[in-house]
């Protein structure tokens, strides 16, 4: 591991120390590594549609809004190959939160997310992607060997 030195003004250090406490980081280095990794990955994912990803799409919607639930269901079925699973939470009598686990080519996942987030009535839409490498393997899982894929998060 390589060491680097950075200079920060006192106010930024104070805010950073508070950040460390709030998130229970044991040391500054781990927090800075996470911040750099997150920033670099977000930048890479924003610039490129190449490769595969896993992640989540989260949003809030009013289930009583005219035809919205039907339009959302249609978007999920239209993109069934990247929409893996959905957690649906009733927030109150009309508002629902959904978190969708997504998996697939980055371009297709972004298309699905845009099809959902841009629906009139969808609020607080957020897509969180993790770049992965997909590896086709053939090996045993207790029985006979079979071919399947493994998804490995990139470091």
Task: Explain what the structure shows.
This protein has 155 residues and is of the alpha+beta class. It folds into two domains: 10-47; 52-137 and 149-153, ACT-like. Chain A, domain 2 (Alpha-Beta Plaits), CATH 3.30.70.1150. The chain is 36% helix and 36% strand. It has a five-stranded antiparallel β-sheet. A hairpin with a 6-residue loop joins β4 (122-139) and β5. The mean pLDDT is 89. One of its GO terms (molecular function) is DNA binding. It comes from Sedimenticola thiotaurini. Ni(2+) binds at residues 77, 88, 90, 96. Residues 54-130 form the Transcription factor NikR nickel binding C-terminal domain. Residues 141-155 have a biased composition (Basic residues).
Secondary-structure element order, as H and E? HHEHEEHEE
The name CATH uses for the topology of the largest domain is: Alpha-Beta Plaits
Question: Which CATH architecture of the largest domain is right?
Answer: 2-Layer Sandwich
- The global form is globular
Report the major sheet. 5 strands, antiparallel
Strand arrangement within the widest β-sheet reads 2-3-1-4-5
Structural class: alpha+beta
Secondary-structure blueprint of this entry?
Blueprint: H1 10-22, H2 28-47, E1 52-62, H3 68-78, E2 83-90, E3 95-105, H4 106-117, E4 122-139, E5 146-153
Antiparallel strand pairs: 1-3, 1-4, 2-3, 4-5
Region (Disordered): 136-155
Function: Transcriptional regulator.
Binding site for Ni(2+): 77, 88, 90, 96
